Amino acid sequence: MTPASALAETVGGVSATASPIANSTGSVTNQAIQVLQGPYITNQYGDGISCQGPTLNVTPFVTGSGSYQKPYEPYYMDPVYDMRDLNDDGSLDNPGNILYHVPTRTGQKDNYNLSVGVSATWSKPLDKKQQDLCKKAAENHNALREQILANRRLEFELTRLSKCGEMKKSGISFHPKSPYYAVCADVVVQNVDTVPSHRHTISPSTVSSSSPSHGSSHSARASALGGTVRLPASPASSTPSSQPSSR
């Protein structure tokens, strides 16, 4: 006769059914740095000429995160129950009775994260031939502009020279204390073929008594009176009549 098998469901009147429980907690934080590629550096030279060059983008960044729990409890008191069976009857003598408490760490803590770094990208056009042609066109354009500026400067200086010379021939000029005196200060007028009106002082000892001319008669009368004579303007090539030859 084979005895019937039986499964143990209780131990000393206490249920022994397995009831496993597993708890898992956690957190994940994803952080990413996005680097945006900027446009190429473009130089404008006028007349539709624009050239692009290599570009370096440098992006420093600082990221941080923090996590904490409230209320903050570093320890908790874990109770210890009375599991004694003093009379060996298979039952607990004081079920549910707490003998004492054991302080147990919770493992709770604050989490902080700080990240510092620099991201950089280097961009360069691949078509070097087109870049060289653009740079050459920019150089020619700048040279043409400089030549146009030099021509305009030459026209200005020649116009200033002509106008200042005409004014100086006419006896017109800025006052030395005028802020515009320097405009014509470096202009020199030469080979002037006219003599402006002027005065001469005639001494009586220089008057000639022989062959008096029309001009010397005036000089003689002027010297007799002990004064001066004013002669009109005459060409510079002729001999002024107000300066008779001495003996």
Overall description:
This protein is α+β, with helices and mostly antiparallel strands and 247 residues long. It has a domain at 201-227. It has 2 helices and 10 strands, in the order ββββββββαβαβ. The chain has helices at 128-169, 214-224; strands spanning 10-11, 14-15, 41-46, 49-53, 55-67, 75-81, 98-105, 111-123, 198-201, 228-231. The strands form 5 sheets. The protein has a two-stranded antiparallel ribbon. A two-stranded antiparallel ribbon has the order 3-4. Strands 5-8 form a two-stranded antiparallel sheet. A hairpin with a 2-residue loop joins β3 (41-46) and β4. The radius of gyration is 59 Å and the shape is rod-shaped. The model is unreliable at 10-14, 222-229 and 234-247 (pLDDT under 50).
